[in-house]
Design a protein that fits this description.
alpha+beta, five-stranded mixed beta sheet, elongated, binds adenosine-5'-diphosphate
């Protein structure tokens, strides 16, 4: 039976609930007169009291565990080696649409769940989350479609791990699951919304840019320098907006997995040097220095995509450090990797924020006065990882930052 509330698979605390009574075959006179008997009797009393305490503690812990499992939004299931259900909390029962009764037999969980992969194909016996966990695999947020009679499929994520005995053999598996159907729908709507808005904003913005460019040329030609400088502000603002829209669009494409790579053999030193030449000619450009101990670093990449990732790092280094401090781009070869480091002497990044830096829309708390969407590093990470590379940051607040990209040599 697994229907009633949560059930712990831990052994029930069955210690004595009755008051402890001193035990002895001897009469009380004998006990009090024989010191050995008296001592033995006292030890028995102490042992019984201890046992009672342990039993109460076990009961408390069991009740605590039940309350905890019952209050979780995540479904928790424990199965044995045959896939039989040993524990199922109320959230799991609701997610799986299992009856809220005491009478459901504890047969294989797999039999109750009709799981498909995200493309709609049924899961093979080896791919079933319970089987994976029982094989000793540890996984998190593996997403599947759960089919339920007469209802639309639900999207469920599973995390799983094995419980082993002293001989390190897998004896049970724990699955933690979450219904993410509504969350995914919201994400989909958000993607659609962002793509739609950014697409519709692009055309009028392009028109503004062309007109402002034209206006600036005319004003300059007429010797109206102050007015031309204002037109230049207009151009700069429109360009900023355009790059933000581009970031939004790109991140939407990346989220939907629509990034295609066109890889060609490329020299990373050359790519980085060319990129610095293409930087818009302003006071910031002179701060960027390429410093490579290597004459070349051959990699096989999609140059356009990689340039985008590197450009994001350079633009951040310039954005978060003040002139005239230099921004150094260093390309090195270590083992079978080419490493590009983008080093600045700017505001730095608090160590506690480093793990989140590459998340979508993440911005360091203190950096909110500088314009940005929190997408540049996310895009860079997606691009680098699509190339089989790694990206990370080394920094401390107030001590500059070094962002590194490692790519397989090839
Ligand atoms: P944003 O558009 O906000 O710059 P990014 O994804 O490019 O977004 O960067 C995420 C956050 O990481 C930024 O908001 C900023 O706080 C921090 N960051 C990135 N690069 C640097 C850097 N070189 N120096 C200091 N902070 C940085």
């Amino acid at each position: 039976m697994y229907g009633a509330g949560t059930r712990s698979f831990r052994p029930a605390a069955d210690g004595p609930a009755h008051p402890v009574v001193p035990f002895s075959d001897a009469s009380s006179d004998e006990v009090s007169s024989d010191p050995r008997l008296r001592e033995a009797n006292e030890q028995l009393v102490v042992a019984a009291l201890r046992q009672q305490e342990l039993a109460e503690e076990a009961r408390r812990q069991s009740a605590q565990m039940d309350a905890l499992l019952a209050s979780l939004h995540e479904g928790v299931v424990v199965i044995d080696r045959a896939g039989r259900i040993l524990l199922l909390n109320p959230a799991a029962r609701e997610i799986f649409g299992l009856p809220d009764s005491d009478t459901t037999p504890p047969d294989s969980l797999q039999r109750h769940l009709d799981l498909l992969d995200l493309s709609g194909a049924p899961l093979g016996p080896d791919e079933w989350p319970g089987s994976r966990a029982l094989r000793g695999e540890r996984f998190s947020d593996s997403e599947h479609l759960l089919m339920r009679a007469g209802a639309a499929p639900r999207r469920i994520t599973f995390s799983g791990s094995a419980i082993r005995n002293d001989a390190a053999e897998v004896v049970r598996a724990v699955l933690v699951c979450r219904d993410v159907t509504e969350l995914r729908e919201l994400e989909r709507q958000q993607e659609e919304y962002v793509a739609l808005i950014s697409h519709d904003l692009r055309n009028p913005l392009a028109a503004i840019l062309v007109t402002a460019d034209h206006l600036q040329m005319m004003l300059t030609a007429k010797g109206l320098e102050a007015e031309a400088a204002r037109a230049q502000l207009l151009i700069r603002g429109a360009k900023q907006m355009s790059s933000m829209i581009q970031e939004l669009l790109e991140s939407t494409l990346l989220e939907t997995g629509a990034m295609e790579l066109h890889r060609v053999p490329t020299d990373l030193v050359r790519l980085v040097t060319d990129l610095t030449v293409q930087l818009s000619p302003n006071e910031d450009r002179v701060r960027v220095e390429v410093e490579s101990p290597e004459a070349s670093a051959p990699v096989c990449v999609d140059p356009q995509r990689l340039e985008r990732a590197v450009a994001n790092l350079i633009s951040n280094a310039l954005k978060y450090s003040a002139a005239p401090a230099p921004v150094v781009l260093r390309v090195e070869r270590t083992g079978n990797e080419a490493i590009l480091s983008v080093i600045d002497q700017g505001v730095g990044i608090p160590v506690r924020e480093l793990p989140f830096l590459f998340d979508r829309f993440y911005r360091v708390q203190k950096a909110t006065s500088v314009q940005g969407l929190g997408l540049g590093l996310y895009i860079a990470r997606q691009i680098v990882e699509a190339h089989g590379g790694r990206i990370w940051a080394e920094s401390a607040e107030g001590h500059g930052s070094t962002l590194r990209i490692a790519l397989p040599l090839g």
